[in-house]
Amino acid sequence: MTKYENLVNILDQVRFESPIEFKSYRPKQDDLEKINQARGRALIHLYLKVTFGILDFKSRERLITDKGYDAGVDAYYIDGEAKEIYFIQSKFRTNKGNFESKEISPDELLKMDIDRIVDGETHDEDGNEYNGKIKQLLRELSQVDDIGRYKYKVIILANLKSLKPSQVRRLTNGFPAEIFDNEKVYKDLLFPVITGTYYHNNLLSISLNLTNKNSSSARISYNVETEFKDCDITVVFVPTEEIGRILYTYKNSILKYNPRCFLEMKANSVNKEIHNTITQKKTNEFALFNNGITMLSDETSVNERIGQKDKAQIVISNPQIINGGQTAFTLSRIYEDIKNSVENGDIFDNKEVLLKIITFGEHSAKSETKKRSLIESISKATNRQNEVSDADRRSNDKIQIDLQELLFNKFGYYYERKKGEFADGIKDKYISRNQIIDRELLLRLAICCDMQPAVARRSSGKFLFQESNFTKYLNDSERVTEYFYAFNIYQSINALEKLLREDVNDRFGTSAYGQAIRYGRFAVTAVCVKTLYDGVGSLNEVSEHCKSVLNRWIEFEKSAQDNAKNSSYFRTYQDEDTGVLKQDLNYEGYYKGRTIHDDLKRFFDI
Asked: pTM (2 decimals)?
């Protein structure tokens, strides 16, 4: 699936989020024109969802103005926190070629009557009255008390690469514009919505319940001196519903420093226990059973006098959860179930969780390395509920981040450097699992690219992700195309194995390919990468290259059997009772052994 096809799939899923009364988003399947019109509106929904974190469909739809006499504005948004007003113009293209190359017409931008809107005009220059949504915008603008402090910004969801910024500004009546061309849509809308990293608010407010607190204060505060600098620790019990709301809203964007994302409950017993403690108990055992959540902050303030009895509020600047991410994400899934009426709304009542907030305060760029080192140490020391593996610890290494970005930008694939980071994308049917590249598999394929297939096959994941081994085998993001070719070869072998599986008498195709598919997949991959490789071709080209190598594999294995250095794997002997020549062929050991590397180089002239 190309990035464009992935985008269309997501736009369709956004369409299907619409309540049943919004029939225009669900036209008949054979009415392609209306489907494409609905996808165009869904693209605006995607922008509003990703950029401003508006998760509710009706709330987004309310901001879409696109219909007759709309002043050339397709949607708007008033950001009260940033003091910005956005005017959105969108042009969806209905095929990959046009979406990635065809530009929006300057005439479309000239139709935008932004200057008339901000001047309070209710009609266009020809005297036509603006539609109800534009009048709604005008009312909202008139109700902004400090409108003089606001800035205006035009968002163009379309290609506009041929014009200079100064030319674009003239077309938008002097208002600054941000252009979301095809690449920016893929990078800043498509990828974030799949990974759940699309919305981040610098200030996070959490409501506290003081009813059960035995002290005069809602929190415990403590100052700690560290190598990095002094930091403050605030410990407080917060309602589990608040944590569920936060993760439902911010998702993986608040887990930047966490070594992994959400682990699905069906594959993780701890998360299932967290879920059951909330949903199956009416009392607050959760506060006893759960180790709590550790959150980083640049600034933390608590106000216990907010004009509400037994209530307080805590405000956190630039929040990031470094431990307890599984707890928080599980609570967010329960919160989502309540919103969707799957669970009762009173499940969270009187249930709280321990929150430890570590406030670092202001720091210089020079101290960033020390800060990250301290964060890593805190993460290792405080995470106990789910063991953090070396693979998890490597998830935020620069090479991993670079490879993820490159594999998506160049090839449209999703590299899972953090366990569970695509859980929401799969749950929401934005992507399928076969679009995801597993981090351990990629590491093994990188080893194959270094012509070490036996190491790739015999080594455990735990061994490979140890720091010394990981940095030895995966250290050059510029080899991403080579790695992706290896991935395609490996997938081609897997696809061939599925076809061969139908033959119960020869399910690994040994008659045609020897033990290549059963034991030698990494060896075949290594040879393919080192022979004829000059970039990533089509899937058919990859498949043909793979088969050309496989067609020589029986001959290769015959040469390996004849090599005296392989006598410990291949032995020919005469049966003492019958006198018949027999062979012991230990291919499983051979493909993990020390001699295969030289055999492959010699036979295939690598």
From this structure: 0.80
